[in-house]
Please model this.
Amino acid sequence: MEERFSRNTFLFYLQAIVASFLTYSCMYAIRKPITAATFDGLLFAGINYKVALIIFQVIGYTLSKFMGIKFVSEVPYHKRKLTLSLTVGLGWGSLLLFALIPAPYNAPILIFNGLCLGMVWGLVFSYLEGRTTTEFLGACLCTTFILSSGIVKAVGKYLIHLGITEFWMPFTTGAIFALPFIFSIYLLDKLPSPSEEDKKFRSERIPMSPEDRKKFFSEFTLGIILVLIAYGLLSTVRDVRDNFAPEILEGLGLGQKPALLVMTEIPIFILCLIVIASSSFIKNNSKGLWFNFLLYLFSGVTIVISTFLYQNNQMEPIYWLIILGLATYLPYISLQINLVDRWVALFKMKGTVSPLVCLMDGFGYFISTLVMLYKAFGETKVTWPSFLAQLTWILGISLIALSGLTYFYFQSKLKTELVAEPLPA
Model:
């Protein structure tokens, strides 16, 4: 099959897009269905039961991301299929335990669920990185963040409407996606390796040794810190907007329209796909890196203006949610697939992007967990729409500042390293 799918054919792109998109979508069917339920009236240790579930899951997810810095970067390529099958399969099994153990004592099970699923992104992206079309393929993969979450929540809501309890609904949702997952990882594992042209323009990607990881982190400490700050803030706003979408819509007076869980994400899905995929046409890696800093600036300004208009009743809430989603997802996705891949390629680093991606994800979910704990214990009376608006002000202003700081850091680093592709002035 590898011979039939040439890297320059429509069939290759179709296979890569379908396989990666479907694999990650099926993982979302194991991770995200709990967000479709509300679990009204339930508490865990004195806090809202659903908030406790998400916190437990994110704790496991965060730990998994940090573990992935070492584990994912060292997984031999021939074992990726088996590793994906085990992680997703165990995550699905945890949902069976969640259904069988009485509430609220089943809440800590979600730690194991997150622990199983946190490395899936790095494993899937390892099939796509290091190619001249990585941004295009990665953009198609990253749209699962946007579209699949809404689809999974809609499926979960529909199952509840059919009479399935909120506790059995997550496991049932996973069962619906089980066969598509098996098919998707078969296709994914049959993708051909990057070509010689890919290796020339994006550098060869190989498993990363502990020494290589240590060298990378020591050489780019300040740059990593700046990226982590941006990614942590983006992850937090994205998680609150996504995990508590039913509560946010309810607070905005739109709770009786569950179709909005999907409809609000479709324009974001389309625009993000177009913008991020278009960056594949930027062959110069320094300009590709610069593209990310422009997205920082654009998104920061957009978030500040739209939130100001919404809070002053000059913008409809539903339009604010869509614009906020777009301005959050654009830099969030670009950081995961564009910046990290260009970073590795521009500085000719030995290894893969997975250690940096896992570190970014781990830090992002850590900050998100702290914010949710703050909401659970410190801002219990603040509505979810108001809480989201507070976070967006912090995100918008920070992105504007970070766009300049990150640009000047890499400009200085390139001059120091004497790389032949300086950032555009």
The chain has 18 helices and two strands. The longest helix spans residues 384-417. The beta strands are 43-44, 47-48. Residues 93 and 171 are 8 Å apart (CA to CA).
